[in-house]
Design brief:
Length: about 170
């Protein structure tokens, strides 16, 4: 029911949770740096820089980073572990594509320096095609170009969702 391509896609979605962990680990490294610089380099015993406070703080931030990642990816992990996916039949009203530009791909042709170096840093926006299915209910779904080629002459299809996470992972005929 679920192919390796769909499993790779849902594994790829877990990477979007990493910035939250990165922020927590940044705080973890900041506390570690503060512990090493302030407490270990000075021989003055300051009450607020007690070693047990910093060690517990470092352990807490590391634990928060780990459990934040586990909490954010728990539904995706459940779907992958149990291979539990559900199908939903969609009746296709029409299929279309639109020419868009990729967000963040282009830069201004006139930078801060004005007209001195107008094309030194500038670049044009990259064009991309986005493919869509519109259902009879009027809901628009974005699909990839392989699914667009397969579904161009079909009247219905099945969308595969994760049972727990409710993430669209694939399209079947």
């Amino acid at each position: 029911m679920c192919t390796s391509r769909e499993l790779k896609y849902i594994e790829w979605l877990k990477k979007s949770k990493s910035p939250y962990v990165g922020i927590s680990l940044f705080v973890f490294m900041l506390l570690l740096f503060l512990f090493v610089v302030v407490y270990m380099s000075t021989h003055i015993h300051i009450q607020i820089f007690n070693d047990s406070v910093f060690i517990w703080g470092i352990l807490m931030v590391g634990g928060v980073a780990f459990f934040t990642y586990k909490y954010l990816t728990r539904k995706i992990d459940h779907d992958i572990k149990n291979l539990s996916f559900k199908k939903k039949e969609i009746i296709i009203a029409y299929i279309f594509y639109s020419d868009d530009v990729e967000s963040g791909s282009g830069m201004l042709y006139i930078p801060i320096l004005g007209h001195f170096f107008p094309k030194l840093w500038g670049q044009k926006m990259r064009r991309i095609k986005r493919y869509y299915i519109v259902s009879k209910e009027g809901v628009r779904y974005e699909i990839n170009n392989q699914d667009y080629a397969l579904l161009s002459d079909k009247s219905s299809c099945h969308f595969i969702y994760g049972q727990e996470s409710d993430i669209l992972v694939g399209v079947e005929l």
